[in-house]
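Data availability (excerpt). The following record was deposited with the supplementary files.
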Amino acid sequence: MLPGMGGRGMNPAKMKQMMKQMGIDIKEVKDVEEVVIKTADSNIIIENANVTIMRAQGSDTYQIVGDVKEVPKELEIPEEDVQLVMEQTGVSEKEAREALKTSNGDLAEAIVALSSA
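Predicted structure:
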């Protein structure tokens, strides 16, 4: 709680003025449709997002509020890898793609698995 606020809410204009005096600037980002945070394993999607940027001491801090859902990333298999596995093992495109997914995209592992099957 900030000093001088007491137990009651403070006038937003007065609050903004106090923060400005402390060197803190707050700005709301308008018309945000969604925010996507990409990680190695998934995408975190925040829909109906309200985004606020607080600048203090030369650093920006983003506050995001909204409806969150996490979507796992699907392994992207390059077409060249599928073709190589097909050529090396004589299997169909579907079998080659499945072996690459199972081996987490490792060409050698996929070829060995299909060759020994």
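Summary of structural features: The chain has a mean pLDDT of 88.
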